[in-house]
Amino acid sequence: MKLRSLLTSLSWMCLFLNTCQSREANDDKPNVVLIMVDDLGIGDLGCYGNGTMRTPHVDRLAREGVRLTQNIAAASMCTPSRSAFLTGRYPVRSGMVSDTEVRVITTLGDCSGLPLNETTFAALLKKQGYTTGLMGKWHQGLNCQSRSDHCHHPHNYGFDYFYGMPLSLTEPCWPDPSRDTELAIESKIWLCVQLVAIAVLTFTIGKLSCWVSVPWSLILSMVLFIFLLSYFWFSSYTSPLYWDCLLMRDHEITEQPMKAERAGSIMVKEAVSFLERNRKGPFLLFFSFLHVHTPLPTTTEFIGTSKHGLYGDHVQEMDSMLGKILDALDDFGLRDHTLVYFTSDHGGHLEARLGHAQLGGWNGIYKGGKGMGGWEGGIRVPGLVRWPGKLPAGKVIEEPTSLMDILPTVAALAGATVPQDRVIDGRDLMPLLRGDTQRSEHEFLFHYCGVYLHAVRWHPKDSEAVWKAHYVTPVFQPPGALACYETIFCQCSGKLVTSHNPPLLFDLSRDPSESTPLMRDTEPLYDLVIRTVAAAVKRHKESIKPIHQQLSGSREGKVWLKPCCGVFPFCLCDKEGNSSATSSSWEGTMESGRRNALSDTQGMNLRVNKLHYHLQLL
Ligand SMILES: *[C@@H]1O[C@H](CO)[C@@H](O)[C@H](O)[C@H]1NC(C)=O
Ligand SMILES: *[C@@H]1O[C@H](CO)[C@@H](O)[C@H](O)[C@H]1NC(C)=O
Ligand SMILES: *[C@@H]1O[C@H](CO)[C@@H](O)[C@H](O)[C@H]1NC(C)=O
């Protein structure tokens, strides 16, 4: 009897403990929301010292969480930086690097992409029972062999749900509004009319030739006609607006071409409904903004709201969208149980300008920007981490951190182990964020430009110094400029770079703007630093296994890889219907938005470019 009651109470206790444990285990798995802005400069945000830009929601994250001031991207271009973010590894390890001028995936006709044996944070968390979603920009490839094999689709990298652009926003995605309505009709009609005409002509000639010999003029006009037809067909096939500016929901193309201006608000809706569906958690949401990349498609609501032209308006629109996501977290009671991380894939694009209007971001006191491998402005990005109750509010951490740290950090939070069969370059950030340790685990960080190592950062364990040695720097042009205005992007190799032997040396703790290189005669530690960094480079290079470089060599876009919504070659579609904005009001918004956004001189530029648009869009 006694034994029995003991057993019963024991089993009750077990049950109790069990439930406690499983509840705790659930509590141990926080939700994760990762927010990445495209091309945002560290100097564009209020909380990083911009007094004239209004970014209240980003600033709120800084107030309620930890602000990182030395948060470093692994590359200064989208595709490689995002590969590193997703995998926690330098892009040179996964082969997401290039030895040519083109360092990103530029078309959906490109078969390169993140290798399938790379493991993303999404895949790790999915295994731990997380529901995983990606909204927005992917830019890690799409097809391998046919227009719909989707071998590099986010689904194959651990994301359960995808809504967004498989590629990236580019200039043609927000076309000249006066052409827009015609376009949709035109391309379809043109093809139909010409196909019918050619059929009729062939038939007639066939008939005629039975009775009379066909006149040369008819044959000539036929040839001319076929030539024109193929010209129009070919140029429409190479038009990025149709073939690259498209949106997908999971495997379905929802808009081709996309309506760039309304994409952001659909993304926010998608994100909010994802949060609502998964409020029981645990979930991982990677919200990958199309903002603030050119051509800055902004809604009328935000045009003229900033002190910094169209670019400023667009940043403020991004901030307001962030606000909607943060509000949704509050509304669904998810706030205290969700880690929110906010960053940019790399620095602002200094060379993006139209006339005198700056269309790219501002990197504050840091030298250089997007596309420059070593200079701080290209790689030092915002980094905000909020987890109420678990992380201190309003804390500032000045130690070096990396975007590659996110994978090990969220893996640890979810109870996953990082892959053991490969080098992971990121480090778990939690001890540093919580204040358990004061020092970053990154003693060295390597700054690549494509496949080339341009600079190395050394933060010695026992000192406040942050040494940076530059082996290669880009040649700015025109002479005297602080960016590569003549080529839009700086180069990584060849004639437009300078090699430094001995390397240019700076101490960022004393000279964050990298303005005055240290000299051997005046810096007592000069030789020691150069030697130590060289030894670190040697060890690092030894740890890199040779691998197929996905982005190297010539990568012609292959026409048969380009996705098509509908029956080829009639690929136009808009399945979003009226769910987010009516198409007529969208066109109105876009047109007036564009008109207001561009000053007279810019408007003139636009008109000058119109012929170009016509040709390109046909
Ligand atoms: C704020 O950001 C804008 C837009 O990038 C930039 O033009 C301006 O110089 C920045 N201001 C400061 C004080 O950093
Ligand atoms: C992935 O596969 C490639 C090609 O077989 C190989 O070189 C690479 O080391 C593999 N990567 C990992 C992380 O296993
Ligand atoms: C979309 O909205 C427009 C204008 O409000 C309306 O005329 C049209 O019927 C709607 N279309 C659908 C499919 O709901």
From TrEMBL:
One of its GO terms (molecular function) is metal ion binding. Its cofactor is Ca(2+). InterPro entries: Alkaline_phosphatase_core_sf, Sulfatase, Sulfatase_CS, Sulfatase_N. Keywords: Calcium, Hydrolase, Membrane, Metal-binding, Signal, Transmembrane, Transmembrane helix. Residues 30-416 form the Sulfatase N-terminal domain. Residues 1-22 form the signal peptide. The keyword Calcium applies. The chain crosses the membrane at residues 188-206, 213-234. One of its GO terms (cellular component) is intracellular organelle lumen. It holds the Pfam family Sulfatase_C. Coiled coil: none annotated. Belongs to the sulfatase family. This is Arylsulfatase F. It comes from Equus asinus (Donkey).
